[in-house]
Structure formats: structure tokens, C-alpha cells
Amino acid sequence: MRELKVGLIGGGFMGRAHSLAYALAPIAADIGATVTKEVLVDATPELAATLAQQLGWRSSSTDWRELVERPDIDIIDICTPPQFHAEIAFAAVAAGKHVFCEKPITNDSAEAARLTQAALDAGVVTQVGFNYRHAPAISFARDLLASGRLGTPLQFRASYLQEVGFGADPNRWRASRATGGSGAVGDIGSHIIDMAELMFGDIRRVSARIRTMAVGETGWAEEGGQVDDDGRIDDSGVWLAEFANGALGSFAVSSYASGRKNRVYFEADGTKGSVEFNWNSREELKVSYVDEAKDHKGFRTIHTNNEHPDGWWRLAGLGTGYPEISAIQFQKFVRAIVDGGQADPDFGHATHVQQVVEAIIAAAASDSWVDVAPRQDRS
Ligand SMILES: NC(=O)c1ccc[n+]([C@@H]2O[C@H](COP(=O)([O-])OP(=O)(O)OC[C@H]3O[C@@H](n4cnc5c(N)ncnc54)[C@H](O)[C@@H]3O)[C@@H](O)[C@H]2O)c1
What we know:
- Helices cover 33% and strands 24% of the residues.
- The chain is α/β, with parallel strands linked by helices.
- Helix 4 (85-94) runs parallel beside helix 5, helix 5 runs antiparallel to helix 9 and helix 7 (183-200) crosses helix 9 (347-366).
- It binds nicotinamide-adenine-dinucleotide.
- Nicotinamide-adenine-dinucleotide binds at residues 9-15, 41-43, 64, 79-82, 84, 102-103, 129, 131, 187.
């Protein structure tokens, strides 16, 4: 069987999740290759060595430039803060490596488009870490929409709420655009934009409001928290969207929603039925069909198992968590490499999501509806 050797850059929160996921991916299904966790790169020799040992990597390094040039490495996996993503990804693509990059691939959609083109020119497989969409219940919802079982898409409502803003370290990299922070819209909003486009197709235009927390966490900052001048980020946002197919969308994100741990939620309505998903009950999809008998109308709860896309276990209810959905995304990535195909979601899709993020920020700043750039055809 083919062996794929991975070099991971950045062994923090996501580096840990990816390390778990690479171990799970080839065990849970035949993915056509073995995956070897070859090198872990981090900022200092001590940190890199400690993390490599703990997370199960064969060796460690502080030099990502040397790593991407190594002929024995097949995959470069980028888990650093976002301001380093593009430079590493361009170098990896130029060296002919397949690249998995955490979201956002960059906070600049023009740069994302150039990176996408560079990867296409090099003929390498790319994938971005929109991991939540790989929950089998979400893949099932996507299939219900794609097959027409829910009819014509009508309305999509989504939110991603956390309470991580309260008391957060003001010097964390996420706190400023200058250190790679994407704001709540870019950081967590990008996941629900990804899900919306997965299910309803591309977003055509948006109108929005965003807010930044005042120092001392006493309320929203003056002037609606306009974010760009001092590099501060948006901590909260709401936006309306119109999809290219005419469907409507409404979205909310916040890092200041007390009691909300990691609440990713959506509802999608079609002319023949609706679905509801809550990450905190991530194995379940609630489904309602219009053509149900009058005395049975209402939502039923489907517990996903291996009858559903990407499900691992015959027995529903065993538990599907963060490591599992991260592993599912690597199963698809490795399969795309082995089969010589394209992964999904790839850098081209990441570029479009970033364009939506930028349109939301621009709509908030201009107090108007803003068109989203149409998705570029593959060339
Ligand atoms: N998909 C998801 O669910 C999800 C969740 C959290 C974070 N993320 C994304 O993952 C990325 C990393 O976030 P995180 O929370 O893991 O950050 P983190 O701060 O926990 O970890 C970043 C790691 O990168 C290392 N690092 C920084 N600069 C480096 C460099 N130049 N070379 C090598 N190593 C370097 C740091 O020392 C640290 O170990 C971000 O892009 C973030 O948006 C995605």
C-alpha cells in the first residue's frame, strides 16, 4: 500500500487535533494509503521536540522551509496562526507537495485566489480545514438537499456562538488582525458560511452589522466597533444573505454569548421539508417532510450511523466527536491524493468563503448590500 508522509507545521490546538485525526483516519476506513506522521515543526527546538514526542511524530524541527523541500515528504499540513499560512503554502505548492491548510488559508481573498491558481498549476491536491461540515449528519443534510428530497431551497438560518471572548488574553494572536486574527466573522463565521454554501450553493450578496467589545467588557465599543484602523477584530456579527438561487439566509456569530460553548447551529427549509442541526447533538439530524400524513407532521430525529455518508459505526449513538470529524476530512484528503482527484473543500472553495467574509465586513462598514465576487472557474 502507498505510504504518505506528512510534515505538520504548528503543534498547538489544531496540531493536536490533526495528530489524533491522522492516527484515526486509516484505521476507521480503507483510505488507500498509510499515513506516517513524519515531522512536526514548531517555533523552538524544545517545543517542537516535546510536541513531536507527545503527539506521535517521528522527528521535530523548527525549519518549515527545509521541511517543504524534503523529497520524502508528500503532504504539508499547516496549523500555524493564519498570518504564516500563505507563505508556507506557496512554498509547499512550489515544491510539489499536497497541502492541507487550516482556515483561513489567508485573510486576503486576492492572495487566496493566487494560492489556488498556484496549486492548480502545480497539480497538487489542496484542502482547507472546514472540519465541522464533515459530521455525517451534515453530509446527510447536504445529500437530502442535493437529491431534491427537501425540494427547492427557501431559507437558511445559522449561528455559531461561543463565550471565549470573556476574559480572553488581549495579547492572543486571535485578538488582532496584525497577528493573523480573523475576527468572529472570519474565524467562526467562515464555518457556517461554508455549511450554507455546501447546502444552498453560493451566496450572492450580503448586508451586515459587526461589533467589537469595549475595553473592560462593558458593552460594544463606540462607532459600532469598526475594526480596521487599529487592527482590532470584530467580536460579533449578524448578516443577511441572498443566495445565487434566490434563497434567503440569516446568520449570527459571537464570541460573547455566555453559556454557549461551541454552538454551531443551522436550520434549512425547502419546499418539501426542513432540517435542523446542532453541533452539541452532532450525531443527530432533525428532519421534517411536508408530505407527511397530517397526524405525523413534525420533526423526527435521525441518529446517524454507517447508513449515512462518512459514518463509521453500524450502531448509532456510539459518539462522533471533534477528532472523528477531523479524521473524516483526512480520509477524504488522502483519497483525493491516492485517486488523483480534487479534494473538497479545496483552496478554491476557501477563496470563495473568504470573499463572503470580506463582503460582510465591507457591508457593515458601508451600511449597504455588497455583492460577493462570483466563484472563479477552475483553470
Ligand atoms: N477548524 C477548526 O475547528 C479550527 C479550530 C481552531 C483553530 N483553527 C485554525 O487553526 C490554526 C491554528 O490555530 P490554533 O488554535 O491551533 O493556534 P495555536 O496558537 O494553538 O497553535 C499555533 C501553533 O503554531 C506554532 N507556530 C506559530 N508560528 C509558527 C511558525 N512560524 N513556524 C512553526 N510553528 C509556529 C505555535 O508555537 C503553536 O504551537 C488557525 O488558522 C486557526 O484559525 C481551526
